[in-house]
Amino acid sequence: MQVNWKGVYPAVTTQFNEDYSIDHDSNANMVDQLIKDGVHGIIVCGTVGENCSLSAEEKRAVMSNAVKAVDGRVPVISGVAETTTALAVQYAKDAEEIGIDGLMVLPGMVYRSTEDEAIHHYQQVARNTGLPIMIYNNPVTYGVDVSIEGMKTLAEEDNIVSVKEATEDTRRISELYREFGDRFVVFGGVDDIALESLMLGATGWISGLTNVFPKESVAIFNLAAEGRYEEATKIWRWFLPLLRLDTIPTLVQCIKLTEQMAGRGSERVRAPRMPLKGTEREYVERIFREAVESRPQL
76-80 and 133-137 as β-strands: parallel, antiparallel, unpaired? Predict the structure, then answer.
């Protein structure tokens, strides 16, 4: 499927059985429900999907089963989060063979790259696949920022078509459009500034909390796209306490806990991650309950 780089793309969780093997049936049901709730695309094997906690074989299985579950209804994008460039290149080749529609490529994991090294990494992946690529630029988490100058180099790769902008600096969105026009499709990649990103021209939103409240996420996107910001803001302000959970180190546990509370999944995570406990768990449970009690009518 040709990727329509627009709309709300949840970065889905990976569900586990009681023995922590992958629960492919639950993954398929979760993806099916999200599509029925109106999302525009699916992203598997991202940070929220615990990519780095999956074996190479498991990642391929997750991609294969997602493609089967989606069945061509929306694009399926896979995160590429490998420790070396060679492994990332092989992953991209395998993803293309499996039938993934596009790639969200992260810099090399574990080793903190320089900008030049990250650019080289992205170039090598792009040159070894025919799939369209989104650059995931997240200096807060991964320690390397691909600057506007760096993006000029990546603009020479025809199949690098999009940027997930997660610097937490909304000025970067305007800088990208000022320098490149419509060369790159810009996605907002930080949940708690997503509405601001959409207002500044981002045409997509990659979200973790969409897994829990997909209809509200889609409503915010659609209203913003129509310039109906006052209506979008009302939903946004209701959603904001939950969206902030996507910006902290325990984001995966927070999202999975709220999925479980919403009846949309299990909170099981693979070690070294551990389920939330104590005051942090109590806080997440409280703001989820408050959100349900005050849920806006769409």
Answer: unpaired
CA distances in angstroms from 105 to 17, 109, 132, 224, 292, listed in the order given:
28, 11, 10, 27, 34
* Residues 46 and 100: beta-carbon distance below 8 Å: no
**How many Å apart are CA 230 and CA 124, to the nearest integer?**
44
Angle in degrees, 0-180, between the axes of helices 251-261 and 278-293, rounded to the nearest 10: 50
Is the model's pLDDT at 164 over the cut of 90? yes
Residue pair 63/93 in contact (Cβ under 8 Å)? The answer is no
- Which one of the listed residues 91, 136, 142, 256 is annotated catalytic? 136
To the query of whether residue 164 is one of the catalytic residues in this protein, the response is: yes
* Annotation says 59 is catalytic: no
pLDDT in tens, 66-77: 999 999 999 999
Quick one: which of 142, 179, 183 has its CA closest to 160? 183
Q: Could you give the residue ranges of the DSSP H alpha helices within the chain?
A: 24-36, 56-70, 85-98, 115-126, 139-142, 148-154, 171-180, 194-199, 214-225, 229-243, 251-261, 278-293
Which three-class secondary structure state does DSSP give residue 116? helix
- Predicted local distance difference test score (pLDDT) of residue 2: 78
For residue range 200-231, list pLDDT tens digits in order.
999 999 999 999 999 999 999 999 999 999 99
| Catalytic residue (choose from 164, 234, 256, 277) | 164
Give the mean pLDDT of 231-254.
97
pLDDT of 21-73, one tens digit each?
Answer: 999 999 999 999 999 999 999 999 999 999 999 999 999 999 999 999 999 99
Domains defined for the chain, CATH in brackets: 7-229 (3.20.20.70)
Gap between the Cα atoms of 194 and 211, Å rounded: 15
| 179: Cα separation from own chain's centroid | 25
**85 neighbors 125 (Cβ within 8 angstroms):** yes
Those residues with Cβ within 8 angstroms of residue 174's Cβ, 6 or more apart along the chain or in another chain: 200, 201
